[in-house]
Design brief:
alpha+beta, three-stranded antiparallel sheet, elongated, binds zinc ion, BED-type domain-containing protein
Amino acid sequence: MSSSGASSSNLRPANTKDPAWKYGEYKSATEKHIVKCLLCSHLCSGGITRLKEHILHSPGANAKPCPRTTPEIRKEIEEFMNKKSESKCRRGSFYSEDFVRDIRVMMM
Ligand SMILES: [Zn+2]
């Protein structure tokens, strides 16, 4: 029964693809509702969503804007968020205009 923590970091969720985790980590393993910004050490209570608002300077968000974010970081996180919402509503786009045009050409 050893209590020595061998894992170097359990301050992030395992297997996350979210780039926001590059710039944040849990305050501690027991305080996962608080995420620390690695850019400016600001503590965001409200999890990774709040950290993103902090880094992205989301308008209307309650989070304090991060003083050390860069346009590159914001772009990286924004692109990830856009990709996520795109894949959610991709259904219904199978019959694209190109596809319909191709059929018309074939029928002529
Ligand atoms: Zn910050």
